[in-house]
Request: fold
Amino acid sequence: MKNIFFLLLISGMQPVLSQTKLEKAITNLENNYEQEKVYLLTDKSQYAAGDQIWFKSFVFDGYNRTALSTTLFVELYDSDKKLIDWKTILLTNGEGSGDFKLKADLPEQVYFVRAYTPYMTNFSEDFQVVKTLPIYNPNSAESLEISKNSNWSAKAFPEGGNFINGIPTKFAVRLSSDTSLPESWTGKIIDSQNPNVAITTFTSFDKNVASFKITPTLGKKYQAIIQDNTGKKQTIDLPEVASSGLNLEVVSSKDGVKYSLKGVNLKQQLQNYKIVGTINNHLAYKANINQLTTEASSLIPTKISNGANVVLQLAIFDEQDNLVAKRLCFIKPNNLKVEKAEIIGKNLKETPRSFNSIDLSPESYFKNYTVVVSDDDGSNNTEDENILSSLWLTGDFTTKIDSPAQYFSKNANSEALDALLISETWKRFDWNSVLSGVTPTIKTSSQKFLSYKVKPIKDNSIVRDAAVTLALRLGEGQPTVSLFKTDQNGYVYLDNLNFNEPLGISLFVNQEKDKESSTDNLFVTVEPLVNPTQFKGNFPSTKYKLVKATENKKLSTTISRAINTQKNNRKTENVDVQIEEVKLVGKKQDPKEELNKQLSTGMFNSMNSTIFDFVNENQNAALSTNILDWLQGRAAGLTFQRNGSGENVPYIRGSQAKLYLDEMPSDASMIASIPISNIAMVKVIKESGLIGNAVLIYTMRGDLKSKNTEKETKKNNLAIVKGYDKPSEFPIEMLDDSTAKVENDTRETLYWNPNLFDSDYVPPRIKFYNNDSAKQYKVLIISFDEDDNILFDNQILK
Reply:
């Protein structure tokens, strides 16, 4: 959707041609208030410790996928704001995906996932995504419970912001709570001098809002008495009745937004009043009232948004360009422009562990899909939030909205959505600040991809204005060499880099005339220019509370299934290891086995181990900064997570692995300091006797010599940088009883694909294996076409 500037003449209205204070403010708004928002989709809404969280991010600039940013930071925090893990995600057309592997020993509590682009840090943290995720652990000393207390409060909001004598005025009543809202509530309006007579009554549309209409009399004090379904009551005051002012009334229909203005006791009536409509901080509509009149009305057609569904902010300014009324409204609430997936074939079975498929049309305008298929247990649980509610509500509003997805569901109540918008305020900018010329301070520009500055230090001196050579080596690939010149501060800049493997950056100071070039006493630092920022705000309140765990802790069906799935995964991993061990039986001793015998003793000998021989084999490790960095991705089940010091700490199947140096307990910082040329063998042990999960490092001894043929690069002029985090591959293979010995397949997420592509008119196919119990499937499909029209399909298939 592209915004259209639209000027309209109604009942004596005409465009303002001179550059007034308001016109300058609109120019300021257009040029300086571009902003982004994020929707984060996860494969499940709750997890067990040891699970994997799969996520897909969608970043929007208003109502289009962003072209501003190519980098997204996604961070996982515990409830004490301790950073557990973080990912740097590549955005392509505003979309990116990744995953978090949860530790098996995570305490049970509510965790939070924060997502933001570097550009978003120029604005309020309130607009960054902070997603609430309860994570359960049966071994935790505390348990999560849903709080039964509903300590709510209420407020009443007059439409347009004014409550004027003798003018019928629509009000929205809004409830808020730090925990949860009551299921239903009712209310009545009274005159405080006659409290026993109800002027009007109302019933809540949903947990959030209700509305009513009242014609006030000057001098009277009005109150609203609200009572929830449990009997709890609260009395609130309505605003004081004004003797003069502007009343704004808005009605949304399929044809557009009709607004009506009524002026009461105004000196120049409505003459020279201005009506301004903005969409996504951009001007979409503007008109001026040129005649003396007390009433004016007009229809703003849907073409101001190209027919798309958007939130329109109407603001009314008087003859002095003062803001006198404002109102949020939704364009075409009963006609959502949302496409559905075109399914041309499906093969779904109820048989346990059967192969299933769903074919999408290859002739659709939509070519790239995000798809999640889950086991539907028939509970008919509705979504609390989805991409539609994020795009149109929660991405732009910072107040807590209960189950915002309901406002865009099949049976949505447009009156409820309208009441909700009456109670909301657009906080991405403030008209009074914009009118006064205030502009946001843009400290972080919208850079493309990742950038770094490289600083060489030679003989303890900054190398300024000097010719240098940079050798860049990505992963195990061949290095590329480029000539640079350091600036007056001694920096070389590497801009717009897009990579997801370790990047080795070697720097050499070019030879001066009659002097030899060397790397002696040359030290290189590489500083990223695209960085995450510390979270300074507070996490949102939740409906959960922690209580002391009981002796026989009861788990929900969902969490029990998740824990059983983890056990199944470990079984399949063990089967793979055992098969490899069987292959080794009866083989002649090889040099690696001899080395293992020579270096390993007692309980450190295990059949369930993976060995890397640095004496007899060339491990191509010279480029890596340390052995832990080199180990990443080289042993099944072994993963790494960064600790607070930025060091890689090994984890095996979700649990932190022990570290040993020459069979003595050690830590990551000690291991990382050992030159790789001094390492003879590395052993990864999984769940073995007294050792459990461990990574063992053995150093050279006696007459051992490395057979690595590479000449190890000196580390003083080499730096290794990490680029974008590469998403893991979601496992979709069938669990087979004959090999895996899995008695009960309880997977909830059966299929996760953040990038299902259509190519060459071959139907995009969703392929997955059933678990042991699913009879029907929840299928979520999201896509965007080239014009950013949205496809959103969430249905149950049998």
Notes: The chain has nine helices and 49 strands. The CA atoms of residues 621 and 630 lie 6 Å apart.
